[in-house]
Structures
1.
Amino acid sequence: MSALFSQRFRGFYPVIIDVETAGFNAQTDALLQIAATLVDMDAEGRLVVKETHFHNVLPFEGANLEEAALKFTGITDPWHPLRFAVDEDEALKAIFKAVRKGMKAAGCQRAILVGHNAAFDLGFLNAVIARTNQKRSPFHPFVSFDTTTMAALALGQTVLAKACPAAGLAFDNAEAHAADYDAERTAQLFCHIVNRWKDLGGWPLPAAGAASEGNNEEA
């Protein structure tokens, strides 16, 4: 992995997270799926999608299940044995292990959540972290990168299903609203926008001394 990775986001390691839930309230509604897509950086400083870690999740005890949300996700029976779902604690520990491994390889100090409407995913992630009493989360608790905002700036689109085609990326509406599919498409979109910014000359930034010299010469 390129040493540039640790410099690109001020020591943060971006991890694309997507969750599917049984409602909008992170404190009361069940987490049903969680996916984490990891990215890598090549020798030229371009981001590439690396791998996705995915888990179906059992509702926590006493969790609220909104019927409309279950229909939307297609998860009509969260306890169905063929989901091979695990409890929240097991899912989070497995994802955190993969994130820490990637973070270490990248030379980064902390993971940062990347999401499409990131506040929603971060809210549920933080709620599960608190509920399962995770002592050492690799994620920053309140800072995130939102591809909704990034796509609005770079592509003039805010909906994932529209932003991906605008970026020349495939998007299948029939596959959407599954955490692994949405996380991978969000990761592709994130990489596209970050790499496009690089292609336009926005990164790496010039050294401070070089910038000062240039300003003096123009003056």
2.
Amino acid sequence: MEWQNQKVVVLGGSSGIGLATVSRLAAAGANVVAVGRDQGKLDKALAGIEGRGQVASEALDCNDRAALDRFFARVGTIDHLVLTLSGGEGGGRFDELDLTALRRGFEAKLWPQLEAAQAGLPAIRRDGSLTFVTAISARIANPGTAGLGAINGALESMIGTLARELAPRRVNAVSPGVIDTAWWDKFPASVKTELFRQQAETLPVGRVGHAEDVAHALQFLMENTFMTGAVIECDGGLRLL
């Protein structure tokens, strides 16, 4: 794929996996629109990345459907839409799980991704791609992840059906494992450090993931025009444990 001729919108592009994806695609020569909720955070995050001249940014709340519709009407035809939107709630043992927090977890990830996907469809070229970011919690049975699995499993259950309904647009997802991003900053530093140590010792690859690992998988799904209805596990082998 000649990325110089491609226009990509990345929602959630101001940090973590989204920012790594923006950086990777811009370096490849794509024209990228990075979307986040805070323009100041976007400006700071995007400053100095390779290919910065290829990147535009826009502050947008993806829970606001009217704002999404206006955005996609302005941006014009795009080749690829990447949804890296996420939240931080929904984890914990089910017998102690705050279901109100789990509801907020759905509101922070499931609904914004679906609203953005639906709003963006008219802008995606006929044979372009739509790619979601879910999480490996949808595919494992680790205690404490039932709520997170429900959020991400709901998204993953739609991928195949959407691939058929929206063809010839391609619809795929990447399902990350433990990735060293700001998502983990809500935990005490000592807890995060110990968890990452345990993961590095037990994962087949011997380390936790980086945002760039997931960005690489996202780029692959955009580039490979024979991939649709697929969910790629980018988890270092966590699902095998």
3.
Amino acid sequence: MRILVVEDEIELQEAIADGLRMEGYAVDTCDNGEDAVEFVFCENYDIIILDLNLPKMDGYEVLLRIREDKPDIKVIILSARGSVDDKVKGLDIGANDYLSKPFHFAELEARIRNLLRQKFVHQNNIISCGHISIDLSKRTSWIGDTAIHLTKKEFAILEYFLLNPERVISQEELMEHVWDQNMNHFSGSVRVHIASLRKKLKAILHDDPIATKIGEGYRIVNGKCDESC
């Protein structure tokens, strides 16, 4: 999943971004409201973490601009403004959640997971396709009773497939949601990671659960275990 962190306190911005990247999220950052609006309208994000006290454009104005054209993006306000009035205003103009500073990173992660569950209409942290399952909270994956040892990027790709079952996903869409803005679009990285993920899944399933639709992209199909799973 791809996240934009909008925070003008650079140390905090970097700490949040580094923590989320360690959990396998693709993260972009910016430190002012004008850049935030430009990023949102140029890229596709699953979640935005938005400070309110921003230079160039206030966070409330950024949120209003986002909601004008991209009402489906999940937005978490993360702000030192912790009064009830601030929270009510933020939620009323379109924020999905509001977390006051100071905060615990574990709570921010939990709120991100909660919004992702809402976005993809899942009721718990475990999602599956056939015998392939992942735990969004623990960031673990398995087939049947066998753990799959994936890199963070492989896990992120599998996560996106399972959150979009049976839908053909283009390379461009994967790049938009699994990689950040530093991705080299000509590097072949998507194909390399797909090939590696396929190899690990096939080693357990003895079949390929990732179907390729030539000229369109990839989709996850119902991964069935044989007796060796």
